[in-house]
Design brief:
The complex is a heterodimer. Chain A is α/β, with parallel strands linked by helices. In chain A, about 40% of the residues lie in helices and about 30% in strands. Chain A has a single domain, classed as STAS domain (Transcription Regulator spoIIAA, 2-Layer Sandwich), CATH 3.30.750.24. In chain A, a hairpin with a 4-residue loop joins β2 and β3. In chain A, α1 runs parallel beside α2. The longest helix of chain A is centred in the middle third of the chain and has 19 residues. Chain B has one domain: 2-Layer Sandwich (Heat Shock Protein 90). Chain B contains six helices and five strands. In chain B, strands 1-2-3-5-4 form a five-stranded antiparallel β-sheet. Chain B starts with a helix and ends with a strand. Classes of the chains: A alpha/beta, B alpha+beta. At the A-B interface, α2 and α3 of A face α2, α3, α5 and α6 of B.
Chain lengths: ~130, ~180
């Protein structure tokens, strides 16, 4: 038997057009915050979605908290989040407890609308709209 | 060079920001942050500025991704010539985002079809269409989800205006969206 490898956490620093990403397997938190309009969205999000997929396969965590605080998403980033929510929905159907917080500024009606769209499209997921104080 | 002529045109057209040249990702970010700060400083509504930002990013990234399909010599950099104008239309009392770039002649019918369809839809239908497209991989290419025009239309207060122009055998696509 090979020794079980501990899953690495993933931290990506924020840039002008990509968000800060903190994926922590130890305490079961997924945090993404900032703006997202990368040059190549697919390449940017691939390691993130791969990590999340592996995490749900390997982690024994009972509960996972997902905090998404995205003040701006371009259309191809929106696509990346729809794909991410698909992964979260699969995990949730596999009896993983997932709590998603969609965080936005009070005056950011576009971000609020995006959160509402996710709630409508992913009925099985526990998504809360959280207004930043 | 007659700079006062340029200033005159800019004043007449209500232009607050304009650029003509090679459009890249870092420039996109730089230009839009500059335009945003300028509008914030003149006390414009935050929601309007946010919509302007959404529209301009999609227009610029459309220009950049169009070049990628044309030229794959550099895999990681997307750069393409184009023109961006952000201005204010006094008659309509609205800001606009206007851009132009060279396209293939054979793209004209495809772009026309897409934009005609988008212009025939109301806001609710646009919202639905966008979500449908995002959940399917239909129009996805290596860089984007192929839904930039829908996003622009969602954030615009008027129907999208567009035209094509042929100059010395080259074909240009112009698009204008009112915030």
């Amino acid at each position: 038997m090979c020794k079980e490898e501990k899953m690495e956490n993933l931290l990506i620093q924020e840039t002008k057009y990509t968000p800060r990403v903190e994926l922590n397997a130890d305490d079961g938190t997924i945090k993404i915050s900032g703006k997202s309009y990368p040059e190549n969205t697919f390449d940017y999000y691939l390691p993130i979605t791969n990590w999340i997929e592996n995490y749900f396969k390997e982690s024994q965590n009972v509960k996972t908290i997902v905090d998404l605080d995205l003040e701006y998403l371009n259309s191809s980033s929106l696509k990346a989040y729809f794909d991410m929510f698909d992964i979260l929905e699969d995990a949730s159907q596999n009896k993983k407890e997932i709590k998603i917080n969609w965080i936005y500024d009070e005056d950011n009606d576009i971000s609020q609308e995006t959160g509402e769209d996710f709630i409508e499209d992913f009925e099985d997921l526990d998504i809360s709209l959280v207004v930043k104080s | 060079m007659n700079i006062s002529k340029i200033r005159k045109v800019m004043n007449e057209e209500g232009i607050v920001f304009s650029f003509s040249g090679m459009i890249s990702q870092s420039l996109t970010s730089f230009m839009l942050e500059a335009a945003k700060t300028q509008l914030e400083n003149s006390g414009e509504d935050t929601k309007m500025i946010r919509s302007m930002f959404h529209i301009a990013v999609e227009q610029l990234q459309n220009i950049m991704s169009y070049s990628k399909e044309k030229d794959s010599s550099d895999k990681n950099r997307y750069i393409s010539p184009g023109v961006l104008v952000i201005g204010y239309n006094e008659e309509l009392n609205k800001y606009y985002v206007n851009s132009s770039n060279e396209i293939y002649a054979e793209s004209i019918s495809e772009i026309t079809e897409k934009l005609e369809h988008i212009n025939s839809l109301d806001k609710d239908s646009l919202r639905k269409l966008l979500r449908e497209k995002l959940r399917s991989a239909e129009d996805k290419h290596n860089r984007g989800a192929g839904v930039g025009f829908i996003e622009i239309a969602k954030r615009s207060s008027e129907k999208l205006e567009y035209s094509f122009e042929e100059i010395e055998g080259k074909h240009y696509f112009h698009i204008l969206a009112y915030v």
